[in-house]
Amino acid sequence: MWVAFIGFVFLFGVSARPGHWDHLGQPYFDNNTKREVAATIGKAAFLLCRVRNLADKSVSWIRKRDLHIISVGVHTYSGDGRFVSLHPEGSDEWTLRISPVKPADSGAYECQVSTEPKISLSFRLSVVVSKAEILNGNELFVRSGSDINLTCVTKDAPEAPSFIYWFRDKDVVNYAQRGGINVLTDQKTRTSRLLIARAIPQDSGNYTCAPSSSDPASVIVHVLSGEHPAAIQGSGNTIRLNYYIITTLLTMYVVNNSTRSSFLSILLANYILILLIVIFMLLTNVIINFLIHCTLTYLLSQS
């Protein structure tokens, strides 16, 4: 009698646990697995499905967009070799690996078990394009003898990059022989900082930040020796000024070729106008140089 009573209590206690009676002897999913998966384009994506009490049933992966059967068990039924079904012997894990992923792979997938009726668990894959960004902009002017300070941030990356390389043109800066170069990479914030002390004109070039899992970003650095950034535009200003002078003279000649006196008077007036234009351009360059000087002084004081 006591044996029967104890057995009844045991069975009642087992069946009273939430969900246990439904799972007893039947396959069921472990809902603790990650079902929203993000992957970087060109990398591998893994959809992990855990099935308990599988017994002699089979596990299939279905792409819901077109109801295409990707795999049954470890056998893949897809002409696309990027899809592989992985199952460690003796485990309850059934993983769909897609490598490398493409934007078209984004969407819903189902892990199905061949019970009657079938049971399934949905997964969603998002393929993102991760990009790097150099916070200094697309172009940077630095005085000779000052420090080059570049900061690179990876955006929209599902996971932190395993490495971030810096290039100057085609040369890797991280391992350059030149002294005074320091690269600080923070995996937590996914940022990398390139510091080049006491820059010289030979340090000018195209600097590229290349994270392992993101598209690269570049900035052109000019190390100036005793000249202002606006001086680079000098040749262009000269060409534009010459163009204005020539077109003005030609216009005056065509309009005033009938009388010499009117031509000379208009010529004098236009020379005065040209002089005013030149003075205006010089003043503009002075103002621009002053603003750039103030900006550089502020940025260098913050580094």
Strand segment tally? 19
Rounded to the nearest angstrom, the distance between the terminal CA atoms is: 84 Å
Run of helices and strands: HHEEEEEEEEEEEEEEEEEEEHH
Q: Per DSSP, what share of the residues sits in E-state strands of 2 or more residues?
A: 25-35%
* Helix-strand category: alpha+beta
Low-confidence residue ranges: 1-22, 229-240
Structural shape: elongated
Q: From the alpha-carbon coordinates, what is the Rg to the nearest angstrom?
A: 35 Å
Q: Widest sheet: strand order?
A: 2-10-9-4-5-6
Number of helices: 4
Mean pLDDT: 79
Helical residue percent? 25-40%
Main β-sheet, in a few words? 6 strands, mixed
Topology overview:
Elements: H1 2-16, H2 20-23, E1 28-29, E2 36-40, E3 45-52, E4 59-63, E5 68-72, E6 75-76, E7 83-86, E8 93-98, E9 107-113, E10 119-128, E11 131-134, E12 139-143, E13 148-155, E14 164-168, E15 171-172, E16 181-186, E17 191-196, E18 205-211, E19 217-224, H3 234-255, H4 260-302
Parallel strand pairs: 2-10, 12-19
Antiparallel strand pairs: 1-3, 3-8, 4-5, 4-9, 5-6, 7-8, 9-10, 11-13, 13-17, 14-15, 14-18, 16-17, 18-19
Helix pairs in contact: 3-4
Describe this structure in words.
The chain is of the alpha+beta class and 303 residues long. Helix content is 28%, strand content 35%. The chain has a six-stranded mixed sheet, with no helix packed on it. Helix 3 (234-255) packs antiparallel against helix 4 (260-302). The chain is elongated and about 105 Å long. The protein starts with a helix and ends with a helix. Residues 1-22 and 229-240 have low confidence and may be disordered.
